[in-house]
Design a protein that fits this description.
Layout lengths: L1 H10 L10 H23 L12 H15 L2 H11 L5 H8 L3 H19 L7 H10 L1
């Protein structure tokens, strides 16, 4: 896919608008290449999510994050990753995804809320919960 992105960059160099940030332009081309590849793959086979076995706490957090990200709607996941991983601004994300800044802002907000809920540790029952029950009896 990297080679395909570079080919698109070379072929589209004449259409580059110098007023636009190069990084956003490259990400838009890369995004389009990835979207096209996913469409081709979806037509040829069923999508499968593979999760590698975890051995340590950092790997379990990474696996949980990966699973939580795959459960996000595509627009929210894309906006979140472009902002958090690629470091693009809301305006650059909007240009890359052909949407508005307000839409990007709301997608990232919803993605963060969903990820917080998915990654929050479930409440633990401690000794105090049982002690209160014994005191009530």
């Amino acid at each position: 896919m990297v080679q395909e992105v570079f080919l698109h960059l070379l072929r589209g160099a004449a259409s580059y608008d110098p007023r636009e940030r190069e990084r956003a332009w490259v990400f838009r081309i890369a995004r389009n290449v990835v979207v096209d590849a996913h469409r081709r793959a979806r037509r040829s086979r069923e999508d499968a999510v593979a999760v590698e076995p975890t051995t340590g706490p950092s790997q379990s957090v990474a696996a949980a994050l990966q699973i939580a990200l795959t459960r996000l709607p595509a627009e929210e996941r894309e906006a979140f990753l472009l902002g958090e991983v690629a470091g693009l601004t809301y305006a650059e994300i909007a240009a890359t995804t052909s949407s508005t800044i307000a839409a990007v802002r709301s997608r990232i907000y919803r993605a963060r809320l969903t990820l917080r809920g998915s990654l929050a540790a479930p409440p633990r029952l401690g000794v105090t919960a049982f002690a209160r029950k014994d005191q009530d009896d």
